[in-house]
Amino acid sequence: MKSLAELQAIKEKMQNKVALREGSGEMRVVVGMATCGIAAGARPVLSTFVEEVNNADLSGKVTVSQTGCIGLCQYEPIVEVIEAGKEKITYIKMTPDKAKRVVQEHLVGGKVVAEYTFAKENA
Predict the structure, then answer these.
(1) What are the pLDDT digits (tens) for 69-93?
(2) Is 0.85 topped by the overall pTM?
(3) Spacing of C-alpha 33 from chain mean position
């Protein structure tokens, strides 16, 4: 870092990511970040959701946040998508690539990626 302007640019870039995590959108994406989730790879999944939501210009509609233990450790990393008036969707065994697909198909397109859900796994 060589100047105050460079520091300001870094601050603005990172503030977009923090705002996504703390926003109040119509839809919430919650990533389980307890020890079991982190050990299973939840941190890159969370980062991918934040980046992809920002890239898809959904920051006013979608809030990405984290939570502790969801209680299904064998299915980690777990991601819940919560929309008012709709049933919560629980995605399991998530990866960054799966997160990208969920953003495009579910958050942008409105279609649940059924093959990644808890309901599909236990059908």
Answers:
(1) 998 999 999 999 999 889 999 999 9
(2) no
(3) 11
